Amino acid sequence: MKKISLLCLLLFVSSIVLAQEVSTETDTLQVTQQKNDFFHRIGRVFTKYFRDFNATDTTYIEPQHYNYAVMAQNTNTYETYRVTSKGGQSFLFSPEPTYRVGPYFGWRWIFLGYTLDVTHLGDKNTKQEWDISLYSNLVTVDLYYRKTGDDYKIRDVDMPGRSVNTRALEGVPFNGLNVGIAGFNVYYIANHKKFSYPAAFSQSTVQRRSCGSALYGIGYTRHRIDLDFDRLQETVNENLPEAATNPDVAKLDSGLMFNKVRYTNFSMSGGYAYNWVFSRNWLFSGSLSLALGYKRATGDLRKDELTILRDFSFKNVALDATSRIGVVWNNTKWFAGMSLILHSYNYRKQQFSTNNYFGSLNFYVGFNFNRKRGH
Predict the structure, then answer these.
(1) 155 Cβ neighbours under 8 A, 6+ residues apart
(2) Which residues contact 231 (CB under 8 A, 6 or more apart)?
(3) DSSP, res 40
(4) Dist. CA 223–CA 231, nearest whole Å
(5) pLDDT confidence band for 162 (50 / 70 / 90)
(6) Contact 143, 132 (CB under 8 A)
(7) How far apart are CA 81 and CA 4, in angstroms?
(8) Which of 18, 23, 64, 332 is the most buried (most CB within 10 A)?
């Protein structure tokens, strides 16, 4: 009887342990399935998102047939900076254009390369600049960094209310201005399945039928402006004949005595782009985006205010712009063309305002190779 009771007890305990093991295995399987379902959902979201990068209507856009590309490019950069006082005095500065040449290597829609500045060979020039634009069907990203050198020249001067001829100042070198800018712009292409930015600016696809698209974007930039007011006054006095007999005629407005300005720019933009296929393998592209930029000088930001929304002011809102023009011939194997990208930034305070324009004009020729399977 005791043996039977003991046997029953062992069977009962064993059944409990077995049930627990089965339950544990079931729970583990359910958790694993839940984890797999969770990660699968995330994977499906990212897969769908990345597919949208290259999703196209092939009646409008012919996809890239090759994996790699080689290209030679000439890049010409130009910029101007206008400083205007509250009284209307204004000075327009710009350096000599920069000419660069160099090779590029591309994989899919990514181009990497190096260009040599042939206008400053052997010069000790402190100018630094790079502009990177990444084009996909869904989004476009502009990254840029510019630090000017000391080779500015005065291009135009306006001194209203003064009986003085300012033409003597035009073309005079001025090394008292230093400007720096760094930032990015991101654009969403609404009609990305039919309209192709890459067809016009990275040659990774071919636009076969004319089409346009609305653009929506956000941007952020940091600006630095250093102006040596005393040196500017000396330059004016040295080059204007009237300053020798009547110094008051050549006196600069006090609004230009800002010396150093640092400000940030947050922007939201909207615009439109159009690709015109005017002949087989030929494309003309044009776009314009206008941005409302909210600009805050570094000195205006108090440490106890971590957000610009607490003291928002419409006085700090200004209109900026980015435009693109491109002409390209592309038969899917060989391609050649030109592109122009321009940026405009405006900033104003009570005593002065500034307008900055910079851009690049590119000429290129290249070919694709290593044909994809199935193409």
Answers:
(1) 80, 92, 93, 94, 170, 171
(2) 174, 175, 176
(3) H
(4) 22
(5) confident
(6) yes
(7) 102
(8) 64
